[in-house]
Amino acid sequence: MREIHEKVCRTHIGSQVLANKIARAGYYYPTLKKDCTGFVKRLPSVMVSNNDIQFTSQLVLEFYAQLGVKQKFTFIKHPQSNKQAESANKIILQGLRRRLEEAKDRWTEELPQNEEEIMTNLDLLQDVKEIAHVKEVAAKARAAQ
């Protein structure tokens, strides 16, 4: 999961896309979507904030230190001054270029892969429906008491 999320893709994808990529790689199991959601929604390793006093207080610094989170500061009026916008755009463009280069002149070959991804989404959707049904039944049972 970490390999696909951080190293292979380098774009820190969301839980749905991560689950799709893992399933396409042949590693499907019933709690895949839930596990991917839990993995993606963990604490970040770096918190970026402005230099306001609520973010620079000793209490906040100690809290971040306890969690092992690094703190970086930016100027809220000029986020481009710390190159964050350029860095994010560069990563997105790299991913797009890589994908387009791989698929150049092969759109007819790419269509089955797209259909496979749609089917993976549908497979995961069934799991989501089943979980929602179980939660609904449990909620109705609690309400009946």
TrEMBL record:
GO terms assigned for molecular function: nucleic acid binding
Organism: Mucuna pruriens (Velvet bean)
UniProt GO BP: DNA integration
PROSITE patterns hit by this protein: INTEGRASE (PS50994)
InterPro entries: Integrase_cat-core, RNaseH-like_sf, RNaseH_sf
Superkingdom as given in the UniProt entry: Eukaryota
Identification of the protein by name: Integrase catalytic domain-containing protein
Domain Integrase catalytic: residue ranges: 44-145
Database matches in SUPFAM superfamilies: Ribonuclease H-like
